[in-house]
């Protein structure tokens, strides 16, 4: 059994990316899935001066330890104006300063969603590009378009059959990858 850490890159209290990662985690079987909320780790906007004056916070160390203790990660990233959110970028900035290879040997399922037809594809592609820099391996990815049109919060399921089949295929492939 592997330990999987699941979280969204959003700081919204009504995050659809959190809903997507929670749904994905509910489809994992035979592994321990731990959910965290990045807003529980209070990190100021990264700056070299803050780093020099204040060092690394206990909360940052706790977050790094959660990541280091996991065998794999499930991350759903949000998008602001065609880019990864400043909130998530800030978390990455801090983590990479405390330990550059903070994702070393982590297998990652990377997802994104948005209300629009592109499903936060730009944020997904950006994040796919930077994860290897920090030692992680994106073994599966999925961009989920038009969240409100394709997901029923009441039923907690993907309502579009084609999307559901593709999503479940990604989940199964991720599980296979972390078992090898």
Write the layout of secondary structure elements.
Layout: E1 3-8, H1 16-26, E2 32-35, H2 48-54, H3 58-69, E3 72-77, E4 79-80, E5 83-84, H4 86-98, E6 107-113, H5 121-130, E7 137-144, H6 147-150, E8 151-152, E9 157-158, H7 161-179
Parallel strand pairs: 1-2, 1-3, 3-6, 6-7
Antiparallel strand pairs: 4-5, 8-9
GO molecular function, one term: FMN binding
Pfam families: FMN_red
Organism: Constantimarinum furrinae
Report what the structure shows:
It is a single chain. With 180 residues, the chain is of the alpha/beta class. It has one domain (3-179): Flavodoxin domain (Rossmann fold). The chain is built from 7 helices and 9 strands; from the N terminus they run βαβααβββαβαβαββα. The chain has helices at 16-26, 48-54, 58-69, 86-98, 121-130, 147-150, 161-179; strands at residues 3-8, 32-35, 72-77, 79-80, 83-84, 107-113, 137-144, 151-152, 157-158. The strands form 3 sheets. Strands 2-1-3-6-7 form a 5-stranded parallel β-sheet, sandwiched between helices. It is globular, with a radius of gyration of 16 Å. The N and C termini lie close together (12 Å). This is NADPH-dependent FMN reductase. InterPro entries: Flavoprotein-like_sf, FMN_Rdtase-like_dom, NAD(P)H-dep_reductase.
């Amino acid at each position: 059994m592997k330990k999987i850490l699941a979280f969204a890159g959003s700081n919204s209290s009504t995050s659809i990316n959190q809903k997507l990662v929670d749904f994905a985690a509910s489809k994992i079987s035979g592994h321990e899935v731990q959910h965290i909320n990045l807003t529980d780790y209070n990190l100021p906007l990264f700056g070299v001066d803050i780093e020099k004056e204040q060092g690394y916070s206990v909360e940052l160390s706790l977050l790094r330890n959660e990541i280091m203790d996991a065998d794999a990660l499930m991350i759903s990233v949000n998008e602001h104006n065609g880019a990864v959110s400043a909130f998530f970028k800030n978390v990455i900035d801090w983590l990479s300063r405390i330990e550059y290879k903070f994702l070393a040997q982590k297998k990652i399922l990377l997802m994104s969603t948005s209300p629009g037809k592109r499903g936060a594809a730009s944020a997904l592609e950006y994040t796919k590009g930077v994860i290897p820099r920090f030692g992680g391996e994106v073994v599966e990815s999925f961009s989920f378009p038009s969240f409100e049109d394709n997901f029923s919060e009441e039923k907690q399921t993907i309502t579009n059959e084609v999307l559901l089949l593709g999503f479940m295929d990604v989940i199964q492939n991720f599980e296979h990858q972390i078992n090898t």
